Amino acid sequence: MGTPDFAVHILAKILETKHEITGVVTAPDKPAGRGQKLLPSAVKKFAVKNKLDIYQPTNLKSDSFQEDLKKMNPDLIVVVAFRMLPKKIWNFPKYGTFNLHASLLPDYRGAAPIQWAIINGETSTGITTFFLDENIDTGNIISKEEVTIQSEDTAGILHDKLMHLGGDLVVKTLTLIAEGKAKPIPQPQADSLKKAPKLDRENTRIDWTASPEEIKNLIRGLNPFPGAWTFFKNGKKELRCKILQVEIHKKAHQLSYGAIETSKTELKVAVPSGFIRILEMQMPGKRKMEIREILNGFHLKEDAHMH
Questions:
Q1: What's the pLDDT score for residue 302?
Q2: CATH number of 212-306: 3.40.50.720, 3.90.1150.10, 3.40.50.800, 3.10.25.10?
Q3: Does domain 5-195 have CATH number 3.40.50.170?
């Protein structure tokens, strides 16, 4: 069970093994683009190409999906980036249902573990397989793998690292379960767990009064999607822009935070104890561009600033 590209790689790795895939469950086709044409999920495209049986329930609790489940009759369900399952589904297979989660549980339970690990300045994270239970990301842990987060890694880079690591971990987990060697352990109870809540308009906005490191981590952690954003005020115009890549310049200044210093090829924003030099940015309705492309022919007013 899965929907995005992250799940495709895992499905491909399972296909390489001796395990039989009795069915692939993914999200219903969604309307996209100007014509609102129905588009299949990444997992569905892969499943069609590989002639796998596909199921796209709108309601997981429906009688028709229960019938589909009986038809597939899985010994085990593997969940990767899908949605919350009702107990009568995850409890159906003989060997239960396990999920692949992109963090070292119990830290970073939730919707956006890859992004929050970078936003919070972590130097390592990982991937975990665990059996589903009644709550979100709380079940008994089967296996884990750790990975280093490099100082310039974006969410996109880390996503791909964890995806490849995750494929191998799922296959390892399948083997442990099939051979009766899985030894699931309860997740440690801790009072101060790090969380990975859903990304929204508020928690993806850049705060120019934060430290340069915090600002850079937010931008790295939201690149390429959904993108850290800010209001760019230039005279009477106020644009909502995405900032995708930056450098930190430590330097004393007397400017207000968010104020802009610019030249023909450079745009720097004043922050505590220095500047954030913007390298890549996306203006509303445009593609992402290097800053020199944007500044070419762009007239900045004297009081231009970001907030």
A1: 82
A2: 3.10.25.10
A3: yes
